[in-house]
Amino acid sequence: MRNGRIVTSPIETEDGAGPVAVDDGQVAAERPEADQLVGRSPGQLMWIRFKRDRSGVISAYVVGFFFLVGILAPLIGKLYGKNPYTVYADERPELFDSAGVPVQPNGGISGEFWFGLEPGNGYDVFTKLIYGIRTSLMISVAVTIAVVITGILLGVTAGYIGGKVDYGISRLIDFLLAFPSQLFFIASMPVVVSLFVSPRDETPTYVRVVALIAVQWVLGWMSLARILRGTALALREREFIEAAKVSGAPPWRIIRKEVLPNVVTPLLVQATYLLPNFVTIEAGLSFLGVGIVEPTPDWGQMFSKASTELVQQNDITYMFFPGVSMIIFVVAFNLLGDSVRDAFDPKTAR
């Protein structure tokens, strides 16, 4: 029916009697669903573009595998029948020579010990690696969450409000960016730990974890805040922000409803670059002895022990598994970040 009229549709009856009069609504209802145009949201379009990027999808699976290994480390260790705290040098001394080095070649790799045994205490390398991945990822995820929250609060606030608020936050960012971050990480860790524990007492693991998170957070949020500030500065001049102001909406409502949804793209892209960076920083601090220490498993701690053996025994076996796993994780996460950026902005070219 068009404007109250019944129209004929070229649909024949079963006996071939010719066209029959049908309503337009009936014809539309009988059309296949595939013929009807369906609008897609920006998120759906981003997801479609991301799925077409083979390297991004593979990287996402690799990153997910590492997180799954970290989460299921206790279960994997239970199925494997070992844990990272057993000192096999004391329990099974026949596996080691007088220097504490595994008797079997290639670091003691066997069907019983898949990745071999560490010299000295004789920790099982496989369980120490999966528990070390768990420790490093737990700390890095906590730092990333804290950095993202701080970057949003300070960066978006400075960019949207402007004036003295923007000036104060921007100068704070400039001041903190002037610190040599790597040296400050090393120098500040013992200071932060000493605030919680007396130098005469043994430092609990949770204190070291809190100190690692705090130090990386204090010196890690500025770059993200500066990016979000620039995005908020550009957004506050847009028409929809002006319309919200004219309608009488308070600033915090405009930030929450209008600005924040539009900073998701740079926020998500930067977060995919920040997390692997924090993983390497945490591993570096543990490598230098100011992070996680034995007997708590940690990625960087394994590098430290492996480098000692590489110098003393000229054996790269102990460096192989933690080194390869870290390279794979960092490369996969960086490729994932590139794919996410391209999915959000199809105009970019690698």
Verbal overview:
The protein is an all-alpha fold and 350 residues long. It contains 16 helices and 2 strands.
Secondary-structure blueprint of this entry?
Elements: E1 7-12, E2 19-22, H1 24-30, H2 42-52, H3 54-71, H4 73-80, H5 88-91, H6 105-108, H7 125-161, H8 163-177, H9 181-196, H10 205-218, H11 222-235, H12 239-246, H13 251-259, H14 264-287, H15 299-313, H16 317-344
Antiparallel strand pairs: 1-2
Helix pairs in contact: 2-16, 3-7, 3-16, 4-7, 7-8, 7-10, 7-11, 7-14, 7-15, 8-11, 9-10, 11-14, 12-13, 14-15, 14-16, 15-16
What distinguishing features does this structure have?
350 residues; mainly alpha; two-stranded antiparallel ribbon; 16 helices; disordered N terminus
Radius of gyration: 29 Å
Structural class: mainly alpha
Describe the global form. Answer: elongated
Question: Number of DSSP helices?
Answer: 16
Task: Tell me the span between the first and last alpha carbons.
Answer: 53 Å
Main sheet properties: 2 strands, antiparallel
Name the helix and strand elements from N-terminus to C-terminus, one letter apiece: EEHHHHHHHHHHHHHHHH
Strand-residue proportion:
under 5%
Q: How many beta strands in the DSSP annotation? A: 2
On the 0-100 scale, what is the average pLDDT? 80
Helix coverage percent: 55-70%
Strand order of the largest sheet: 1-2
Low-pLDDT ranges: 1-17, 32-37
